[in-house]
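As the next step, I wrote out a protein sequence along with its fold in token form, included below for the reader:
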Amino acid sequence: MRYALTKSLALTSLLFSSLIAQAPPELAQRIVQEGITNSKVMQYQDVLCHDFGSRLTGSVAFQRAADWARDQFAAMGLEARLEPWGEWQVSWDREQWMGRVVEPVAMELQVASPAWTGSTRGISRGTLVRMPKTPEELAALQQRAESDSALWVWGALPRDPKEDAIRSGVQALLDQGKLIGIAQSATSTGWNDKNFENQLRVFGDSRRAQRPYEERPRWAHAVVRDDQSKQIDELLAGAKPVVIEFELRNRWRPGPVKLYNVVAELKGDRKSTRLNSSH
């Protein structure tokens, strides 16, 4: 988000620098003064970040924010519209997330859920078990899951092609509803910026949004802050069972879902300057 905002501000600066270079000196000064004394940048940012919140591509929140941005451009006197660029099969919105360790100690967790993942049915409590690393560990998990459906698996799904059999085995248990879901550390996702300690950063697999609603993932996926993940690892190394619970509210909606850019044009005598906004 910080990179996107910095990039957006940089592009805006370049745009206005170009406009000012083309304007007569008096008009250029008026433009500069307007930006200094009557800027609404923070007001617009506050609405986008707090009134609309997360604006994932194809989400209801994104559509509402796009409509709002178009209306704001129109109110400025620009020719504004939504310009379609694609279509997905489903819509997905983030809602409320919660997590905690219940046993052998009580610990509130800061968690997030990757985009285009499933939800829990209310608060889902279960025993936490480690992601299998060997065929023998996978077989043990499969056997346990047959008699105990209240299991969360701790760790990332294997990415190494040599571990495809283990990944497929765990994936099958998830898809069959024999496991509640996966929980993993923030760093294990590969999405964190190493410059920010305990960052909780989630993305997702947008290919899931391009599949039919009936094929959406049903199992839940939680990502836990790194310092708390270390404590969970220590608990799992102990002799007592680790019981954990999450409430992950994510909302899927059937499509098709039109995808748009917000486009506004400032008409001039000789040429048009186009302003684009997608987030």
The chain has seven helices and nine strands. Helices lie at 2-22, 25-37, 41-52, 60-75, 135-147, 164-175, 226-236.
